[in-house]
Amino acid sequence: MEKVVIIGAGPCGLSAAVELKKMGIDPLIIEKGPLVHSIYKYPTYMIFHSTPELLEIGEVPFTTPNEKPTRLEALHYYRMVANRHELRVHSYETVTTVERLAAGFRIRSIDRFQEEHTYESERIVVATGYFDQPNRLRIPGEDLPKVSSFYQEAHPYSGMKVAIIGGNNSAVDAALDLERAGAEVTVVIRGAEISSRVKAWTRPIFESMMNKGRIRVLFSSVVTEIHERFIRVQTPDDVIDFENDFVLSLIGYRPDRTLLNTFGVTTDPETEVPHYDPETMETVVPHVYIAGVIAAGNRHANSIFIENGRHHGKLIANHIAREVQEGSGE
User: Fold this and answer.
1) Which CATH superfamily hosts domain 147-249?
2) How are strands ordered across the β-sheet holding 222-226?
3) Under CATH, which number does the domain 2-133+253-326 receive?
4) Which contiguous run of DSSP H or E holds residue 211?
5) Which residue in 47, 50, 55 sits closest to 15, CA to CA?
6) What is the pLDDT, as a whole number, of residue 303?
């Protein structure tokens, strides 16, 4: 039987694994994609808002000549951490069920070859992130092939009419990138202005492009229908149809708590935050812990990210090590 199984190999899951190894516990990590899958899915040329030291885990220095690291540097850094600490990671293996036993848990998974695996573990850490769960528009046409909730790079959209839905950093960054590549960009924002969370160094550039007419921005507006060749937008004054080739729905993501719910972890009915002890990250189900954005509510998923979620690992490791030493968890 494993001492600890960690579900999810993002930065917060890796942080928990590194801290546990420091305590003499060698956890098994099960990840449905590649290592740090969420960062891999970021835009190809993305630059982090954070400085490198705020992305560090396991007290391993994140060195870069740049003030803010790139996606490529982050991928290299987290691979290096996993290799340096010889973490056991089962990539491309999806956990399907978790069953509570008299002592511990039975975890079932399926790998990319459709082979099933079964593990038993005394404790579980759920660090599954949220990047695979984009928020839905809930409008006709959002499942058309032209619609995506992920933006990677501008080249495929050159010369195309692109609508971006959203007013946060991801939407603003994509709009600027697309404009530089020669796309005809329309940004549709539900609010009366772009988000206050948009980076201070990006906002004036975006506003300049907007004021010059190089990026069209529709405030207090919503896309109501998506069709093959056009989109329908409800503006404050009228309903307007715009010619359109592609739609990028960049309205955020939400944690998937289906797995947590299956083995009894409850959530606040209003905020949807799981019930857990913030001092240890242990949920109301003994020996089940959460790390990273899974601990946030659906309404405020961005309140937890790498900068603060990486510290969850140390809280978890300290609590598990203390239990093991005291013998109360045996």
Assistant:
1) FAD/NAD(P)-binding domain (3.50.50.60)
2) 222-226, 230-234, 239-243
3) 3.50.50.60
4) helix 203-211
5) 55
6) 57
